[in-house]
């Protein structure tokens, strides 16, 4: 059996399990993809396990949104094309709230597969980095700094033919993506953002406008002509390193906790979120276990907020307050203790 068909069966099994629930529209399938290629630092392939161990499944199950099903399948040696083919074969992304716990270069596969199922989707990319170098402009040579350039139609005349990438077809236009949280952008990336008219909000823009205005403008850019599915790509290094220290490329001056939660709360409130990539949690890079735990807990908070947790409270439906069954019940010793 081929790797692609094996992974397709894995995803299909999780999807079918979720569809059997009473409320399939509120189901979430968790796919852990411990992948560490595309860059040189070890440890990011342990990110999915760290997030699961921080209580992700229980947190989502407690939201009153149905049950979260979780896969522990490892795909670290599988080609990125397998992710694309597997997602395409499901044909279920718009019926179930899917998200993928992935390393960023896998956005090549997750977004490619998602667009084949939902051709008109848009992308919100929350990150300290633009990840839009081309193979000819990259300074590091790392694939994880290049995925967006492979996905954009407007950049294809700047892309060399690379062995092993014939499966990848450009699937986004520059108007389909908005960046939030940028603060470490290479010269060539800055040129691309400016000259190809790609909407982005740096941390300076967030300071100037405020996160509410940034989200309003993001939705105006992406949804002004029609509503469409949202693919959220959220790199944990979008947060300030004081909040998320266990990550590979931390940059000072990032999102506060409140700003990060506001972003995902507002995306959830649209009702259009279709898939999430939550990436770059690296347990081997924390200076202490507490730093690792803090980063993993933050990732859980991000994902829980994507699927309905709010800072106003996320509880089961409460229809009315109870009333005493007898006149003296409210004064009984069992009911009132001072």
Automatic annotation (TrEMBL):
<comment type="subunit">
    <text>Homotrimer.</text>
</comment>
<keyword id="KW-0479">Metal-binding</keyword>
<feature type="region of interest" description="Disordered">
    <location>
        <begin position="318"/>
        <end position="338"/>
    </location>
</feature>
<dbReference type="InterPro" id="IPR006035">
    <property type="entry name" value="Ureohydrolase"/>
</dbReference>
<dbReference type="GO" id="GO:0004053">
    <property type="term" value="F:arginase activity"/>
</dbReference>
<dbReference type="Pfam" id="PF00491">
    <property type="entry name" value="Arginase"/>
</dbReference>
<keyword id="KW-0835">Urea cycle</keyword>
<dbReference type="InterPro" id="IPR014033">
    <property type="entry name" value="Arginase"/>
</dbReference>
<feature type="compositionally biased region" description="Acidic residues">
    <location>
        <begin position="328"/>
        <end position="338"/>
    </location>
</feature>
<keyword id="KW-0056">Arginine metabolism</keyword>
<dbReference type="GO" id="GO:0000050">
    <property type="term" value="P:urea cycle"/>
</dbReference>
<keyword id="KW-0378">Hydrolase</keyword>
<dbReference type="GO" id="GO:0006525">
    <property type="term" value="P:arginine metabolic process"/>
</dbReference>
<dbReference type="GO" id="GO:0030145">
    <property type="term" value="F:manganese ion binding"/>
</dbReference>
<dbReference type="GO" id="GO:0005739">
    <property type="term" value="C:mitochondrion"/>
</dbReference>
<dbReference type="InterPro" id="IPR020855">
    <property type="entry name" value="Ureohydrolase_Mn_BS"/>
</dbReference>
<keyword id="KW-0464">Manganese</keyword>
<comment type="similarity">
    <text>Belongs to the arginase family.</text>
</comment>
<protein>
    <recommendedName>
        <fullName>Arginase</fullName>
        <ecNumber>3.5.3.1</ecNumber>
    </recommendedName>
</protein>
<dbReference type="InterPro" id="IPR023696">
    <property type="entry name" value="Ureohydrolase_dom_sf"/>
</dbReference>
<comment type="pathway">
    <text>Nitrogen metabolism; urea cycle; L-ornithine and urea from L-arginine: step 1/1.</text>
</comment>
């Amino acid at each position: 059996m081929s790797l692609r068909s094996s992974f397709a069966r894995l995803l299909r099994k999780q999807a079918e399990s979720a569809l059997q629930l009473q409320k399939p529209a509120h189901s979430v399938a968790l796919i852990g993809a411990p992948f560490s290629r595309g860059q040189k630092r070890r440890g990011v392939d342990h990110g999915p396990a760290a997030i699961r161990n921080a209580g992700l499944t229980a947190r989502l199950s407690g939201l009153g949104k149905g049950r979260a099903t979780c896969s522990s399948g490892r795909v670290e040696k599988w080609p990125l094309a397998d992710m694309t083919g597997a997602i395409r074969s499901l044909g279920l992304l718009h019926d179930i709230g899917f998200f993928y716990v992935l390393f960023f270069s896998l956005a090549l596969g997750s977004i490619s597969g998602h667009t084949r199922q939902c051709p008109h989707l848009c992308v919100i990319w929350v990150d300290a980095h633009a990840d839009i170098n081309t193979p000819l402009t990259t300074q590091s040579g790392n694939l994880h700094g290049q995925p967006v350039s492979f996905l954009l139609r407007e950049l294809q005349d700047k892309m060399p033919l690379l062995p092993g990438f014939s499966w990848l077809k450009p699937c986004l236009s520059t108007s389909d993506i908005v960046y939030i949280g940028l603060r470490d952008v290479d010269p060539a990336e800055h040129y691309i953002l400016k000259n190809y008219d790609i909407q982005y909000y740096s941390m300076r823009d967030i300071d100037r406008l405020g996160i509410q205005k940034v989200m309003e403008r993001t939705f105006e850019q992406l949804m002004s002509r029609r509503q469409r599915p949202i693919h959220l790509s959220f790199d944990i290094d979008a947060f300030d390193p004081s909040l998320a220290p266990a990550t590979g490329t931390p940059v000072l001056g990032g999102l506060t906790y409140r700003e990060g939660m506001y972003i995902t709360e507002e995306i959830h409130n649209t009702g259009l979120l279709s898939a999430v990539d939550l990436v770059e949690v690296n347990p081997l890079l924390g200076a202490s276990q507490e730093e690792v735990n803090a980063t993993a807990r933050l990732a859980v908070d991000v994902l829980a907020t994507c699927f309905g947790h709010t800072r106003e409270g996320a509880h089961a439906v409460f229809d009315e307050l109870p009333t005493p069954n007898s006149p003296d019940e409210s004064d009984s010793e069992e009911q009132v203790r001072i």
